[in-house]
């Protein structure tokens, strides 16, 4: 699949590396070609890019979904109370965080998992200032268990954590889709690729990038989202400041001076 790599940047963004980013991975990103579960080769590929980005000077935090594991228990969860099902999904993200941590550390990275649910044997509790300190010490921080609350997705957790730690952008890696389209390219061959959007346009057009709560958080706080295909090299390219995939951003409006 072709990858767009225009060098032109949106207003206010130059082709320079980010200082701190939050990488959002779906649980399906860890599946590879499996029906569910984990594909070690895919995790190793992702981990190597994260290590390379971190070694280049960009601080990296991660949020990973749990769809790859939850898909395997979907039949059992059918008819389950929504809150209970959401907690099961949060636990799935902890399993994925542990898998990522193991591979990252075998590749030389120092990592910390911070969980929104209390699991002290395997993860620290989420503490914002501690997370920032880990990043300043060049540790990769993996945020697990979403927000710790049912009825919120890991997209919302990614937006919330990115804002809390002062990330410059959310890097959103997608499976087999090179960015945002005006339709589903897997079902509609005529779907058009959209290289740039505002948060409001994304919400109003109902484009399935993130859930509306997450998009609204990013819009209100002018946090850009870089949506790109999860293929070899793209995480590094986006972190370096290259134009890859779709950029969702809302320009800041300068306040008018008060002449009174």
Question: Layout of helices and strands, plus pairs?
Answer:
Elements: E1 20-25, H1 40-55, E2 59-64, H2 67-70, H3 74-77, H4 82-106, E3 111-115, E4 124-125, H5 128-136, E5 140-144, H6 154-165, E6 169-174, E7 180-181, E8 193-194, E9 196-197, H7 199-204, H8 212-220, E10 225-229, H9 234-239, E11 246-248
Parallel strand pairs: 1-2, 1-6, 2-5, 3-4, 3-5, 6-10, 9-11
Antiparallel strand pairs: 7-8, 10-11
Textual characterization of the structure:
With 260 residues, the protein is α/β, with parallel strands linked by helices. The protein has one domain: Acetylglutamate kinase-like (Carbamate kinase, 3-Layer(aba) Sandwich), CATH 3.40.1160. The protein has helices at residues 40-55, 67-70, 74-77, 82-106, 128-136, 154-165, 199-204, 212-220, 234-239; strands spanning 20-25, 59-64, 111-115, 124-125, 140-144, 169-174, 180-181, 193-194, 196-197, 225-229, 246-248. The strands form 2 sheets. The chain has a 9-stranded mixed β-sheet with strand order 4-3-5-2-1-6-10-11-9, sandwiched between helices. Helix 1 packs across helix 4 and helix 6 (154-165) packs parallel to helix 8 (212-220).
């Amino acid at each position: 699949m072709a990858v767009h790599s225009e060098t032109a940047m949106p207003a206010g963004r130059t082709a320079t590396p980010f200082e701190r980013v939050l990488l959002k991975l779906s649980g399906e990103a860890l599946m590879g070609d499996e029906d569910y579960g984990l594909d070690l080769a895919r995790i190793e590929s992702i981990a190597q890019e994260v290590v390379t980005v971190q070694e280049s000077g960009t601080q990296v935090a991660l949020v990973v979904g749990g769809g790859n594991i939850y898909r395997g228990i979907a039949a059992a969860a059918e008819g389950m109370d929504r809150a209970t099902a959401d907690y099961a999904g949060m636990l799935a993200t902890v399993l994925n965080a542990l898998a990522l941590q193991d591979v990252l550390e075998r590749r030389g990275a120092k990592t910390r998992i911070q969980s929104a649910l209390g699991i002290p044997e395997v993860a620290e509790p989420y503490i914002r200032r501690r997370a920032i300190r880990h990043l300043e010490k060049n540790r990769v921080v993996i945020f697990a268990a979403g927000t710790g609350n049912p009825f919120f997705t890991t997209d919302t957790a990614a937006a919330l954590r990115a804002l809390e730690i002062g990330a410059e952008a959310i890097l959103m890696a997608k499976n087999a889709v090179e960015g945002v389209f005006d339709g589903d390219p897997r079902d509609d061959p005529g779907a058009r690729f959209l290289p740039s959007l505002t948060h409001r346009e994304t919400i109003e057009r109902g484009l399935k990038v993130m859930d509306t709560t997450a998009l609204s958080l990013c819009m209100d706080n002018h946090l850009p989202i870089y949506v790109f295909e999860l293929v070899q090299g793209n995480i590094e390219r986006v972190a370096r400041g290259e134009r890859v995939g779709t950029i969702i951003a809302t320009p800041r409006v300068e306040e008018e001076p008060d002449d009174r």
